[in-house]
């Protein structure tokens, strides 16, 4: 684990402005993380600003802390990195995990829902999770109050994965600490943020993307219109995963999001058998079902260098409104490798932010 | 109304063993009801048994009673007979109605559901019906306890049709008497059974068929698995009408039928707007949307007579298990007009019963 390439990989990931796309591009361009980390200061200078590069000591401390906590780091492309997640857009370059890695090999389904769930909803989520776990499915959720917590408890015996917004050692909300500890022992806790990170608002949508990305499908149990659970379901749909929802009375605001999903084509779920039926063709061949490009392989090739005029042309096309990279290539009439190189420079320089769907915006 | 052809039509309909198919075949074969009623005794004798033929006095009494009650008779093929219902399989040859015939010209939707409905379900049905009536849709239901009653009250101002299982003057359940009287004044009451008939168990499925047949679609509000409301919904689906259902918690047995319908493809309904959207393409051109054969025109031609050997061949193929007439034609290798004639004889003779889907069985 503590070899120089792993240390260099983690330094890249923990450096300022290095997102998942840039991480993959740098590895491709320089052939190794060790070579990329050496080149990083020069690249960032071209982008226009100084870049804070994570030091070797810093990431060695992180690795030691994770290991001391009983956890480990999974780099994308490594043996245990979850296969389905690797096929998602913006798969995290590294995950910090604690618990039973074997759960990542089994078919998994997400159960998410309202934090202010009703008693009936909590009971339903717990029984649904228990039934799915009994059928050898791993239940993935986000350790939030309400439905998430009920789903984890219901599946704790059979197998559950808890994806958290902060670092591996940070429980949020605080009352989830006991559940998180138990999942770390009997299930698997997964974190994208570095060890010790307190979760911030922007980390929760990323947590939701990982939940959707880890699973063959997402079941929403109680969710209002415009709730976070619905966003998770829509991310799952966009990734080609199954979307399922538990209906409720139209008079119950907590059911309106679920009912809306069903109107949009989500499968109506009444019990664990309905979920298993919906995912029937999925189990065992999770990779084969999705014809999405492998995000790890699909990063565009970079040019060796982009000149000043290319920089100026690309920057002129950027605005705070996210724009597809394809569009920038078309409008600039530059080779895509040149555009990719400029975008990398700008991102490292802190002048560019990447959005879902291969879109970029000026900061 | 009291002309000799109308009297003869009603005599045919009210005679023993004359169902909707036979009625149409007899009118086709003999050109008029007056001629058919004259031929009926001979035909029945060929079928094997004596047939009780309704007398002129008997049906003149019925017409007088209906008229005295403020009602009237609508024969299939006449101006006011509801167009959509005429396109349903086994459309009743005559309806007894009381109230506003103009309602039969407007787009209509059925709202049906559990008799033992919850308070929330009753409130929902009433508000849904009220919203639909406000949008100029006629709400059709069956005057049963629970959802039906709530739907009628909700739509009473805007327009509602109550289809009853017994005669026009008979209220069932007894507490529906006030509602039925009000619908007779401000809406429209429709009955298939003769004036004065107490409803029997076998009349309720026929009532449900009329509800489905009169409407562009059926909304089920609360219904258990295997409930009558689900049967109405399935009849609507078979007739190419829209099927809609209001979801509920899987923990509520009264929602399980609705949830099942949604799983099978029914549109999930949360409010009147959802119903109007689902029926959007239907309004105004109710006839054009369905490519089903016009049941009134599609009765098979009859042969002038079928000989003994044809009778024997067809009878040998009949059993108490309903069999498609097409199959009997194929297996007997007889012309379809001959088979139709034998079946007519057997039905009039009380030896044959017709089932939905053009199937027949031995009695």
Could you please describe the fold and organization of this structure?
The structure is a homodimer of 363-residue chains. By secondary structure, the first copy, chain A, is an alpha/beta fold. Helix content of chain A is 45%, strand content 14%. The first copy, chain A, has helices spanning 4-14, 20-30, 33-47, 56-68, 83-86, 119-134, 147-155, 177-186, 203-214, 228-238, 253-263, 272-278, 286-289, 308-317, 325-332, 336-348, and strands at 72-75, 94-99, 108-113, 138-141, 160-164, 188-191, 217-221, 242-246, 267-268, 323-324, 352-355, 359-362. In chain A, strands 1-2-6-5-4-3-7-8-9 form a 9-stranded mixed β-sheet, sandwiched between helices. Chain A has a 3-stranded antiparallel β-sheet with strand order 10-12-11. In chain A, strand 8, helix 11 and strand 9 (267-268) form a beta-alpha-beta unit. In chain A, helix 3 (33-47) crosses helix 16. Mean pLDDT of chain A is 89; it is low at 283-298. Chains A and B meet through helix 6, helix 11 and strand 9 of A and helix 6, helix 11 and strand 9 of B.
Short description:
2 copies of one chain form a homodimer. Chain A has 363 residues and is α/β, with parallel strands linked by helices. The first copy, chain A, has helices at residues 4-14, 20-30, 33-47, 56-68, 83-86, 119-134, 147-155, 177-186, 203-214, 228-238, 253-263, 272-278, 286-289, 308-317, 325-332, 336-348; strands at residues 72-75, 94-99, 108-113, 138-141, 160-164, 188-191, 217-221, 242-246, 267-268, 323-324, 352-355, 359-362.
H/E topology pattern of chain A: HHHHEHEEHEHEHEHEHEHEHHHEHHEE
Give the radius of gyration of chain A: 21 Å
Largest interface: A-B, 21 and 21 residues
Strand content of chain A: 5-15%
The quaternary structure here is homodimer
Fraction of residues in helix of chain A: 40-55%
Coarse morphology of chain A:
globular
Overall mean pLDDT score of chain A? Answer: 89
Q: Cα distance, first to last residue of chain A?
A: 35 Å
Number of helices of chain A: 16
Main sheet specs of chain A: 9 strands, mixed
Structural class of chain A: alpha/beta
